[in-house]
Amino acid sequence: MAHLSASVYTSHVPAIGAALDLGKSAEPYWQPLFKGYEYSKQWMKDNTPDVVFLVYNDHATAFSLDIIPTFAIGCAAEFQPADEGWGPRPVPKVIGHPELASHIAHSVIQQDFDLTIVNKMDVDHGLTVPLSLMCGQPTAWPCTVIPFAVNVVQYPVPSGKRCFQLGQAIGRAIESFDQPLNVQIWGTGGMSHQLQGPRAGLINKEFDARFMDLLIKDPEAAAAIPHIDYVRDAGSEGIELVMWLIARGAMADVNGGAKAELMHRFYHVPASNTAVGHAILKNG
């Protein structure tokens, strides 16, 4: 059977990808941020999975305002890097895992979660920046990837509780797949930030630290945070953190299993105009 071995949490700031692609990662502004991922890159080499189930949000590349799925799972064999207005990032194409993706879709829909099944889409920085942070700049990504897009851009967006419960369903689906695959689940986006309006540039270190504490030690409490708290305390884009709850909900310790082990935790301000958070949890 497949096994969910770990969960990874990270911001997916587009400027991080640009810094890597343009060779700026050693500059004084960026160096502290990339230093925080040195452990993670080595950990990824030492613990390379067969598949990464990667939760992210699309930024109006695969989906426009014409069609806005709340949850969309990529079931294709491959996904090209998206052109977000300045050409596709110079990164490898993403190779999917249609068999596991289809199994997860079937299992989760049978558990009463409505997913949109996507057989063709390009993937933007929300997905490729986390891969770059964890894997560096290879000629091919070291594992297959199942993209899982969540609408956290256009209201109404899903609640933290719903995302957490969906993660639990995804965890059960992964563990029931009848091939011996090593699977990781990644939750991306966040942390506190606001990109427009009078509060543009907002960063709330206290909220971010409290959220990470709860995510690790009391994920049910993190899942109970209401939307208004994200908007008020973490900025309009802070709602992206509900995607971390999908990854956390898949872990064994919230489903009656052994306690998750914290392997790494990192926080940095600023990266562009946002805070960057990152953690790795080994599954129990």
Structure description:
This protein has helices at residues 14-21, 31-35, 38-46, 98-110, 125-135, 160-175, 205-217, 219-223, 227-234, 242-249, and strands spanning 3-10, 51-56, 71-74, 78-79, 94-95, 116-118, 144-150, 182-188, 261-271, 274-282. It has 284 residues and is of the alpha/beta class. The longest helix has 16 residues, at 160-175. Helix 1 packs across helix 5 (125-135), helix 4 (98-110) crosses helix 6 and helix 6 (160-175) runs parallel beside helix 10. The strands form 2 sheets. An 8-stranded mixed β-sheet has the order 6-3-7-2-8-1-10-9, with helices on both faces. The chain contains 10 helices and 10 strands.
Q: Specify Rg, calculated over alpha carbons.
A: 17 Å
Q: What's the helical proportion of residues?
A: 25-40%
At the first level of CATH, what is the class? Alpha Beta
Give helix and strand order, one letter per element, not per position: EHHHEEEEHEHEHEHHHHEE
Termini separation: 16 Å
Topology at a glance:
Layout: E1 3-10, H1 14-21, H2 31-35, H3 38-46, E2 51-56, E3 71-74, E4 78-79, E5 94-95, H4 98-110, E6 116-118, H5 125-135, E7 144-150, H6 160-175, E8 182-188, H7 205-217, H8 219-223, H9 227-234, H10 242-249, E9 261-271, E10 274-282
Parallel strand pairs: 1-8, 2-7, 2-8, 3-6
Antiparallel strand pairs: 1-10, 3-7, 4-5, 9-10
Helix pairs in contact: 1-5, 4-6, 6-10
